[in-house]
Input
Amino acid sequence: MIDYTKYKWLDVQASLPESAQIKEKEAKRLLDTLDKKDFTSAKKDILARYYFDQCEKYAQEDRLDQIKLDSNLTRDFRSWPKSSSFKKMVEQVVQSDKGKFVMSGIVIVMTGTLLVFFLVAILTGKFLFNIWIDGIVGALSIVFLYRNMKIKYRLVKRYTSSRDYLYLDIASFVLCFLLKIWLPVSFDFSLIILFIAHFVSKKKFEKMLDEFTI
Output
């Protein structure tokens, strides 16, 4: 049985084929070859999934023995992207990743705002309700913020090694925190700043995905 977890670029959260649906020796050769390639994680993942999908279709038709990988897998990596089924898969993956990025970003904005409010409340001693209720809200915001940050940066790392997204998030959170301390309550721009940062990140990510090719 193939240990899929050793391939860090493979999206293990998506469904993976059972042993009966693939030729394990061939599949492992494909995964090991992709693992050594200087491709983005998204490209490796899509190429592997395309092969898995083809194996599943052939297996359902009881023709699994007919599917073969080229002895030189580079030739397969060049020919597969030309097929309509592969292009359709890329489009589906890209649209799915766009949606996940937007949803995680919105949750980050909301939970990030709550966290900034809580941190400032601790420093100033001015709680919205009391330290216990505010503490529960603060703890929940940390949990959801952390989870969605993981989702967001897992998506970013699939397509690029750029740290621009991280720098933008850090800068926006620091600015929110400082403004929350310096400005009176009537001039609270925390939510606006985080939404602007999310909008900039979203546009940058979508542009990158629109230009994504294999």
In short: Residues 128 and 134 are 7 Å apart (CA to CA). Helices lie at 24-36, 41-60, 73-79, 84-124, 131-159, 164-182, 190-210.
